[in-house]
Amino acid sequence: MGIALIWSIALILIKWITSKRRGAISYDSSDQTALYIRMLGDVRVRSRAGFETERRGSHPYIDFRILHSHSEIEISLSARNIRRLLSFQRYLRSSRFFRGVNAQNSLYILDDGYNGQAKCMLEKVGNWNFDIFLFDRLTNGNSLVSLTFHLLSHNGLIDHFQLDMVKLRRFLVMVQEDYHSQNPYHNAVHAADVTQAMYCYLKEPKLAKSFTPWDVLLGLIAAATHDLDHPGVNQSFLIKTNHYLATLYKNTSVLENHHWRSAVGLLRESGLFAHMSAEDRQRMESQLGFIILATDISRQNEYLSQFRTHLDRGELCLENSAHRHFILQMALKCADICNPCRTWELSKQWSEKVTEEFFYQGDVERKCNLDLSPLCDRLTSNIANIQIGFITYLVEPLFVEWARFSNTRLSQTMLGHVGLNKASWKGMLQERSSSEEADPAFDDTD
Ligand SMILES: [Zn+2]
């Protein structure tokens, strides 16, 4: 009896110790709740804290690769089948159980040469010609974790806010993994690129001299999470397929609301700000929403005219926190669509990726007999046309105003690249049309 009792006590102790140890790394009681909420797959289940957050991994994962699959197994393409099959894939990928087994965070398996080169690149992280694609390769696909961790650490934010390094790393790994690596464009590398651009803007003299550590932390976290769990299709696709997220957010800033709520969910799950006062945590969460929601491109004109009015009246005063946060919104908007402001080599790669994502959506729409979204039809649109329109109607007007606000070498460099890149796309378009004229059969063979 005595031995049995000692053995039971020992077992209880071992269980307690292992659960505690796991708690320190990746589990605690509230995480377990979150885990089961995810497993139940019910988006209606909310956080107990009273503030609505999105359940992570809740989005039915749409894997467009099946459209290009030449597998002998015929896959039925009814929307319902896609959803049922791929929700489970998404669940597998996002489940912490499986994440634990399949840790993709393999920074440490890189040899020293790669790590050394990645570290070297980080010394120039504030340069506008920073090559995020190369950095992503050097970090074995961990660009978002490595870059954001470095920026927070290098700028003294970890010390200033007394952030727990383990929780921070855990938060960033979850953020990175909740981006869909299968998306050609809206993936963690885009988030890393936007975070790097945001950092460049935060370093601009006007911002650097008046922004507080809180603003910098807010800006960098907003940039890193601004497209979290992006499904690789746009809002209109979600609305016309009656997706539950469209219903949940009443067809308004559907994706941006989802990115924000997902980010808040991860902040809470990681406990990154658990040591802050409830008031500060709530302030951080709502300000994060304020900034991320500004990336809704359908509200571009609204923000732009507000920006113009402020500049015309010369009334922006960065001592005022409301004005600083408005500038954070504008900075994130610029960072989000800054691809044409990069060098041609980088800009061209981004253009190819975004076009690929648009055309995949168009392919799904065609196969499912849905109306084809503008710019998504590979039969009528092309990369050069899409880029020229994007630059003319969205990028140039925004960056012209940004240069009025922050007239620096960086803003002039960005406008310079925009002009050159637009000219290159125009040149390619002309070449294309002259070769079509020269060869009447071009259309049939294209
Ligand atoms: Zn984005």
Please give a structural write-up.
It is built from 23 helices and no strands. The protein is mainly alpha-helical and 446 residues long. The protein starts with a helix and ends with a helix. Residues 13-50, 57-92, 95-109 and 442-446 have low confidence and may be disordered. Residues 190, 194, 226-227, 336 line the site of zinc ion.
Number of separate helices: 23
Q: Which cofactors or ions or other ligands sit in this model?
A: zinc ion
Main sheet summary: none
Q: In terms of per-residue confidence, which ranges show pLDDT below 50 for 5 or more consecutive residues?
A: 13-50, 57-92, 95-109, 442-446
Which descriptors apply to this entry?
446 residues, mainly alpha, 67% helix, globular, disordered C terminus, binds zinc ion, signal, metal-binding, cAMP, HD/PDEase_dom, 3',5'-cyclic-AMP phosphodiesterase activity
In short:
67% of the residues lie in helices and 0% in strands. It has 446 residues and is mainly α.
Write the layout of secondary structure elements.
Blueprint: H1 2-25, H2 29-40, H3 65-68, H4 79-94, H5 96-101, H6 112-122, H7 132-138, H8 143-154, H9 157-160, H10 165-178, H11 188-202, H12 205-210, H13 213-225, H14 235-240, H15 244-248, H16 254-270, H17 278-292, H18 300-313, H19 321-336, H20 344-367, H21 383-405, H22 409-438, H23 442-445
Helix pairs in contact: 8-10, 8-11, 8-13, 10-16, 11-13, 11-19, 13-17, 13-19, 16-17, 17-19, 18-21, 21-22
The structure holds zinc ion.
